[in-house]
């Protein structure tokens, strides 16, 4: 069997390399995860029409991104954990921060606390939940009133899951949907806050949130947006990417160009839309056809030799 080599990234490219080789005779060419995330994000933000959008109060608004005025920005990738990367250009970046409280925390704690069998079920539950049942609000502490002097309204979460200490209840007394909702808010709020602080630290105006954790979920995006808005006192805005979960894969895919400059003719994107990233005989395609209505997916096809 011919030896196929695939560009791969992330921990899995290391963890499963032997398995791919043994079972499929496929070699994994390991591409750096941060580099791939940045390459993927830069490509999408420059080439895809209506890639970035804001999301607040259920309103999705596409952002006009000028490819010539993209940098610097903060890229926040929420996978199992969270990486925060300051991006200054193509291939120019620094991972400035991160947090271990990420998508894995939401899914892991959620699984333990609710017995949900999969991520989608847990996410779905959060739709119906009410976090006030479990979260301790400022009003719970201040007898129903705001703490206006320091800018905290009665409905602000004072302590995530804090009500569980005073309720004399057991886990079984809480509804899984309320637990899921509190958990989602806790994780999303925390990520939003740390991201904003890092943007502030480096004077970055734009924060793009991506990663498979987001999954276009309204409440997740809303919570992150509110957190960024709250902590920045309205100065900063969270932005999301339509192809949020595929930055790394896209970056790894695009590294074919770097790996095989002679054997592959990769066309530069001639215009922002429609996309025709690559064409290499019968080896690689990355295309998005037709007029954009904001809902297309990008198709990437890789053929081994
Ligand atoms: N169908 C799903 N199954 C499991 N996790 C999912 C799913 N959809 C979204 N997620 C979220 O994505 C996270 C993993 O993101 P991913 O980018 O794949 O991380 P990693 O790079 O660590 O593999 C999970 O921790 C979970 O929060
Ligand atoms: C180690 C990782 C880069 C791996 O990426 P992931 O698979 O989570 O997408 C990421 O989980 C991470 O940045 N964790 C946070 C570590 C920290 O800064 O505390």
From TrEMBL:
Keyword Nucleotide-binding annotated: yes
Catalytically driven reaction(s): (R)-pantothenate + ATP = (R)-4'-phosphopantothenate + ADP + H(+)
E.C. number(s) listed in UniProt: 2.7.1.33
GO molecular function: ATP binding; pantothenate kinase activity
This protein's GO CC annotations: cytosol; nucleus
Pathway: Cofactor biosynthesis; coenzyme A biosynthesis; CoA from (R)-pantothenate: step 1/5
Domain of life: Eukaryota
UniProt keyword annotations, A-Z: ATP-binding, Coenzyme A biosynthesis, Kinase, Nucleotide-binding, Transferase
Biological process, per Gene Ontology: coenzyme A biosynthetic process
UniProt KW ATP-binding keyword: yes
Protein name stated in the entry: pantothenate kinase
Species of the source: Gossypium armourianum
